[in-house]
Design brief:
Helices cover 32% and strands 17% of the residues. By secondary structure, the protein is an alpha/beta fold. Helix 1 crosses helix 10. It binds S-adenosylmethionine. S-adenosylmethionine (SAM) binds next to strand 3, strand 5 and helix 11.
Length: 326
């Protein structure tokens, strides 16, 4: 399906829960956020019904995220049911990886093909600080279990923050020399708790590329397959993995945007930044069928703005990233 700017929309990101087992400093306040009441969160069968409607409308690719998707009970069963929906040909996850050791094999078997794991530092103490209490060793166990069960590719999401972890970009980049990891450096966006301290903390991708080129060696652009998302990828000569840059702020890629976002409470967002939402939960709970859900999905597609306006700051007082789905 196409939006009003003739972009092909085929990708739905689904926040399966607003709950998270970490509280990353740029994402959530120290006390966490007040959970959305249980009855307002989409039930798994409702998520499945929305994805059935989405597939009818032309969605092919699903990413389950949150919050932390692996804390949602019954996730594996949901994935198995989504895998059997005609038209859905790709199911992926964005996770902090902590629960992967016990779940990776079952998730793969249920239909997950690949996974993005968030890791902002290689230092134990810093990991505790940035995640407010997480253990780096646990995240690494998760990364290894994803590799071991054959989820591929395994991409690592690293948000770069000035004077916090920008001294580690070379060490992170070096990981790709010897292991089949795909490190993606993400520009900090003015969303969540970082809203108040974004400006001085933002590091443009260009600066990271220059630092890596100077410190390690020349990065060569890599042509990725269609549908590989908004990152621009590079590789060192002979390296196993790749290095990607997500330049949401310094060079937006909205002209190629192919996505919609379903919040954990059933709002369909045309754009991460855009506060407008099409309510899918109320019609679903009134018994609306797949075809009508597909029509509502088209309504959201038609609302997609030409581009985000994040440079003007985060005006959404209603929701944070974990509720919308990062
Ligand atoms: N809990 C999962 C995880 O840790 O990957 C999924 C949800 S998390 C919100 C998804 C991604 O959003 C993470 O990679 C996180 O680093 C990123 N993220 C959160 N806040 C961000 C911000 N202000 N700027 C850039 N990326 C952000």
């Amino acid at each position: 399906m196409q939006d009003t700017y003739r972009r092909e929309i085929n990708y739905l990101r689904v926040s399966v829960t607003d709950k998270c087992n970490l509280r990353c400093i740029y994402c959530l306040p120290p006390e966490g956020i007040k959970s959305i009441p249980h009855e307002e969160i989409l039930r798994l069968e409702e998520i499945e019904a929305i994805i059935r409607g989405a597939a009818l409308a032309g969605i092919k690719k699903i990413r389950l995220t949150g919050g932390e998707p692996l804390v949602r009970k019954g996730l594996e069963g949901l994935i198995r049911r989504i895998s059997s929906i005609t038209g859905i040909d790709d199911i992926t996850l964005t996770t902090n990886g902590l629960l992967l050791p016990s779940q990776a094999a079952a998730l793969k078997e249920a239909g997950v093909k690949r996974v993005n794991i968030s890791l902002d530092t290689l230092k134990e103490e810093r990991y505790r600080e940035i995640t407010r209490g997480g253990e780096l060793a646990e995240a690494w166990k998760g990364i290894h279990s994803a590799l071991d069960v054959g989820l591929s590719p395994v991409k690592i999401n690293t948000v770069v923050i000035r004077d916090f972890n920008d001294d580690e970009v070379e060490a992170m980049a070096r990981l790709t020399l010897e292991s089949p990891l795909h490190i993606r450096f993400i520009e900090l966006m003015p969303i969540g708790t970082c809203n108040t301290w974004t400006e001085g903390r933002f590091v443009p991708a260009r600066e990271i590329i220059d630092k890596i080129n100077r410190g390690i060696g020349i990065l060569h652009p890599v042509k990725m397959a269609e549908g590989d998302g908004p990152a621009k990828y590079y590789r060192f000569d002979g390296a196993e993995g790749t290095i990607g840059f997500i330049t949401s702020m310094s060079e937006h890629f909205c002209e190629n945007c192919n996505r919609l976002r379903l919040t954990s409470s059933g709002g369909l967002r045309p754009c991460l930044y855009d506060g407008r939402e099409v309510d899918l939960k109320t019609p679903l709970r009134r018994g609306t069928g797949d075809r009508e859900i597909a029509d509502l999905i088209m309504t959201a597609v038609n609302l997609k703005p030409d581009r985000h306006h994040m440079l003007e700051g985060w005006k959404d007082k209603k929701r944070v990233m974990s509720q919308i789905g990062g």
